[in-house]
From TrEMBL:
InterPro entries cross-referenced by the UniProt entry: P-loop_NTPase (IPR027417)
Native organism: Bacteroides ovatus
UniProtKB keywords: Coiled coil
Keyword Transmembrane: no
Protein name per its UniProtKB record: Uncharacterized protein
Coiled coil residues, start to end: 200-227, 320-407
The keyword Coiled coil appears for this protein: yes
Length: 461
């Protein structure tokens, strides 16, 4: 990404000479002293002239919609504007120098080098001023509209980035970050992960389905016990059938666990391949060596390798972040489902032991146990209903928190007085922070209540 490091101007507007080095990762407020009219404060002190120097240096055009010779100081015949950019990724420097004269054509000098003492300075030669302007904008990854609408703002040329459409925002961010460059191998890896993820989801659905069926069978067993007086002759046969069905379902659960383990191994192999690709992206190896390493990894994983080698080097880096986020979500979901399976197994084993003990004493305690089961089921239903209500409240609070955080995301801190303000005049930052703190506290209380209810349900089951 290119950053503006230095601005130099001579005989431009009211400036005889301007040489300013910009601070990076800071918001800079410029205050001036109006030497003509004390009542105007900073107005007319030359702040907009500095923006003119930046606009002319990048685009070759002025912000004020005036002729180029009118921007030259009245006492001089020519003006000079120089800009210095630095690319934090490649370490390159881009130097732009423009000489504007009342009598002759504009003179432009553009050079690229790697440090200030670099002897191998590359001087850029173009046919005309328009070609130089085009080269500068393409090198910076911007368009003229981007510069005047989002980077250099004035009352004459201004279009709010926040009020732009989603498509325009994405286009601006992609051009600014060079996000259209990404390795096609990442996309291929993501495509190959899709069937594995679908298989994993299907296996989890099957486990949940059969777990539900096991619970249904358990309820049917309880019903059969209550009717044992009338069907005492068939009780032993029915119990054997239920035990056989339970054994079958447990065997099916073990098979699904084996499939999940295989999926985990395959995902782990893909994860190692992804780590290799990320290291290659951050390395300084040439493209040929990187492609050979990628070919070996893809061959070992039985993944198809893209044939269009030229297209591999120009893909979207933004997509890589999306893939990483999605993969992390899949891992988290997998862990959650494994926990659910373990919880279900534990609950099932507890119920099975209770059932075996119940079979030994069902003649004496059938009525009492039935009443206890009904009371426990009622308690679970009440706790589930209470949890559903708490989750609804939590969803509303999270929506409110997201809205408050969005308001605080636009807060600007004055580096001089540390005053916080936003572009929206109707936002009280302190009130928003207090509301956000209250909402977070309410959310924590709800989470504690849900956790307590789930613990009670776990104790019951």
């Amino acid at each position: 990404m290119w950053t503006l490091r230095q601005v130099y101007a001579k005989n431009l507007c009211a400036f005889k000479q301007l040489d300013y080095t910009l601070l990076q990762k800071h918001t800079t407020l410029i205050f001036g002293n109006n030497m003509d009219n004390d009542s105007q404060g900073s107005n007319g002190s030359g702040k907009s002239a500095m923006l003119e120097a930046i606009a002319i240096g990048i685009t070759g055009e002025t912000l004020r919609r005036i002729k180029m010779d009118e921007i030259i100081n009245d006492a001089e015949d020519e003006a000079t504007v120089s800009l210095l950019f630095q690319n934090n990724t490649t370490g390159q420097y881009l130097s732009i120098k423009r000489v504007i004269s009342r009598k002759t054509a504009q003179i432009i000098k553009v050079s690229i080098y790697y440090d200030e003492i670099d002897c191998n300075i590359k001087h850029i030669e173009q046919a005309g001023v328009a070609d130089y302007n085009k080269f500068i904008l393409e090198t910076l990854g911007l368009t003229k509209d981007d510069v005047f609408s989002n980077f250099i703002l004035s009352k004459h040329k201004y279009s709010s980035f926040l009020s732009s459409s989603d498509r325009e925002k994405k286009e601006i961010i992609n051009r600014f970050s060079n996000g259209v460059m990404v390795d096609e191998s990442i996309a291929a890896l993501q495509e190959d992960m899709i069937p594995i993820q679908e298989s994993l989801k299907q296996a989890e659905l099957n486990v949940a389905n059969h777990t539900g069926r096991v619970e249904t069978l358990q309820e049917q067993i309880n019903t059969a016990i209550t009717e044992s007086t009338e069907r005492s002759q068939k009780k032993a046969e029915r119990i054997a059938n239920w035990n056989e069905a339970i054994a079958g379902k447990r065997a099916y659960i073990r098979e699904q666990n084996v499939l999940i383990n295989k999926s985990d191994e395959l995902l782990e192999q893909y994860d190692k391949t992804d780590e290799v690709l990320q290291k290659l992206e951050n390395s300084k190896k040439d493209t040929g060596a990187c492609f050979e390493i990628i070919s070996e990894r893809f061959t070992s994983c039985a993944l198809p390798l893209p044939k269009d080698f030229a297209a591999i080097s120009i893909k979207n880096q933004k997509e890589l972040e999306v893939v990483t986020t999605e993969y992390s979500n899949v891992q988290q979901q997998l862990i959650q489902h494994e926990k659910k399976i373990a919880t279900a197994k534990s609950s099932y084993e507890k119920l099975l032991k209770q059932h075996e003990k119940f079979q030994e004493n069902f003649k004496k305690k059938s009525t009492k146990i039935e009443n206890q089961i009904n009371e426990l089921l009622d308690s679970i239903k009440k706790l589930d209903a209470e949890n559903s209500n708490l989750r609804s409240q939590r969803t509303k609070l999270e929506a409110d928190i997201a809205s408050l955080q969005k308001q605080l995301a636009g807060v600007i801190v004055c580096p001089k007085c540390q005053h916080e303000f936003t572009l929206a005049n109707d936002v009280d930052i302190n009130e928003v922070k207090l509301r956000l703190q209250d909402r977070n506290g309410e959310t924590q209380d709800i989470l504690q209540n849900i956790e307590a209810n789930e613990k009670r349900i776990s104790d019951i089951t």
